[in-house]
Amino acid sequence: MIIAVDGPAAAGKGTLTRRLAGHYGLRCLDTGSLYRSVAATLIAAGSDPQDTAAAVAAAETVDPRRFAASELRAPGTGHAASIIAAEPDVRAALLIFQRAFAARPPGAVLDGRDIGTVVCPDADVKLFVTASVGARAERRWLELREADPGAQLEDVRADLERRDARDASRDTAPMRAAADAHLLDTTEMDIDTAFREAVAIIDAARG
Q1: Bridging pattern class, strands 2-6 and 125-130
Q2: What is the pTM of this model?
């Protein structure tokens, strides 16, 4: 079984994906970690995120396990990853990795921006997880404050709005809900409620 979980940053996709994978006995993949890993590789090498050749080379040998979660979640890494994700050649290189991961038994839950539309258009169930930008900004701000007490909520919100615009307007694989995706708005939900709603959607879709 393949479950596609798409949506904007800080909507709760990552935590939801991990819990769904455990619930259904599937493997899970945060595809955003692949792009952040490419970004972290370029940053560590002092390369420009807009250097397409360097980004493609990093994508072809991507290994998110090389970096600590804190490195992949750093604001600078997320910003660079959003730029890199707009590069068609980078997306093509990572598409091979993602599809191979999804195809291995017993299946997987994949979290990203284009899983249901591009990576796994034939996924058994597709969710589009979203939330208001205000709710998402506050969630991300609370996460960042643990490592950076000086993080400002308004800066986090502005960064999310820029990333949303880039993700939705890029020419290659823009972020959008698949026509057959089930919408899950988590603005007023905690993770337990969102998980129960997602399980109900998935079980109903599977009959």
Answers
A1: parallel
A2: 0.89
Could you report the per-residue pLDDT of 180-198, keeping only the tens digit for each?
Answer: 999 999 999 999 999 999 9
Question: Of the candidates 105, 91, 118, 108, which has an alpha carbon nearest to the alpha carbon of residue 177?
Answer: 118
In the structure, what pLDDT confidence band is assigned to residue 75 with cuts at 50, 70 and 90? confident
Token pair of 57, please? 């080379």
CA triple 16-123-202, angle to 5 deg: 50
- What CATH number should be reported for the domain holding residue 168? 3.40.50.300
pLDDT interval class at 19 (50, 70, 90): very high
- Beta-bridge mates of residue 28: 109
Q: How many domains does the chain have?
A: 1
Structure tokens at 115: 């899983």
Residue 143: per-residue pLDDT: 86
Domain that holds residue 142: 2-206
Q: Which residues contact 207 (CB under 8 A, 6 or more apart)?
A: none
Pick from 184, 207, 59: which is nearest to 111 by CA? 184
d(CA 5, CA 159): 22
